[in-house]
Amino acid sequence: MALVEIDVLVAQALGLTLDELLLIYRVQFPVMQGYERDTWYDLAGRIVFTNSKGLVGVGLPRKGNRSTADVTFTTPDGPRKTGKFGWDDLHAMQEAGTLPAGSTVTTTVIDDTQPGGPQARTRAYTAPFALASREADYRIAWAFFEQDQPA
To answer: Residue 140, Cβ neighbours under 10 Å: how many?
Structure first.
């Protein structure tokens, strides 16, 4: 959200209108729009899945297969299921209503980015999963900062 706020503050400082900021985003950043159209967040704002080439290893893979880590999902009423699930599977479950709000999805990954060698880390995501809208966020931030402007 900080990047959205910076975009809005700079646009306002330059004397642009909200429509001009939105036009710049639509015309100048088609690749980013493509990534944002397929980046899904959990209830806490963590990325569950992204197609962004700059965020390899973030979130779940699109497709589950033999080489992917097991994924476990637990529904609020208790039943759990473990398997080689990918994002497409979980998204389909959410759309079908079999992954209700409050369900948790966990997977363990090997993190080899820290000193001291590889470590197993468990990632947990909480449903529902949703897309963000930069354009909607721009509108919200614009209205917020516009009310702070001196008359």
So the answer is: 14
How is residue 119 written in tokens?
Answer: 């470590």
Q: How many residues does the chain have?
A: 151
Strand order in the sheet with 104-111: 80-83, 71-74, 104-111, 119-126
Q: At residue 149, does pLDDT exceed 70? A: no
Q: What is the pLDDT of residue 150?
A: 64
CA 2 distance to own-chain centroid: 15
pLDDT (mean) for 15-39: 95
Both 34 and 79 in one domain: the answer is: no
Does this model's pTM top 0.70?
yes
How many domains is the chain partitioned into structurally? Answer: 2
Token duo for residue 30: 């088609």
Peptide bond into 30 cis (omega under 30): no
Quickly count: other Cβ atoms within 10 Å of residue 42's Cβ.
19
- Domain that residue 54 falls in: 48-128
pLDDT in the model for residue 113? 85
On whether both 60 and 36 belong to a single domain, the answer is: no
Determine the pLDDT at residue 140: 96
Residue 102 Ramachandran class (φ > 0 left, ψ -120 to 50 alpha, else beta)? left
